[in-house]
Description:
Radius of gyration: 20 Å
Shape: flat
Strand content: 35-45%
Mean pLDDT: 81
Largest sheet: 5 strands, antiparallel
Oligomer: single chain
Number of helices: 1
Helix content: under 10%
Distance between the termini: 35 Å
Number of strands: 10
Order of helices and strands: EEHEEEEEEEE
Amino acid sequence: EQRLHLIVDTHANVHLFPMTDESMDLFLGGMSNTFFCMVDKDKGVIIGYGIKGPAEVSGTEKMDGWFFKSDKLWTVIFPTESERIVAIATRQEDEVVHSQAKVLTNKDVMYKYLNKNTLFVATVAPKGLNIIRVSPEETWLVAYIIDMVTGE
């Protein structure tokens, strides 16, 4: 089984691998639905991006392979004096999601589904920031669910 890989550099440029025409065709078909985020745990910042399209390379830049520019879509800032990011998780790409259906009183069907662009963020606050003895009453684990498309 072959897979496409997207490698994000420090400038939020997205590089496609393997570099084949077939890979490019497959990626361009789903590019508008591809989102990613970059996390700085020390600063408590999460930035969400969407992919714009193939980047144009000037004569002074030399890039190996195809790469794409990204758009910054949203930013979430956690106050570092009161919260610290301790864990982040996303859904696995190959994870099978069961969509439940609920029949409404007017016989319509409402489907419940899991958003494939969900980001889970866990933080500790406030006394848990220091690794000193604290009682459970002084520490909170806070869970956030963030939509990677909107940042909400």
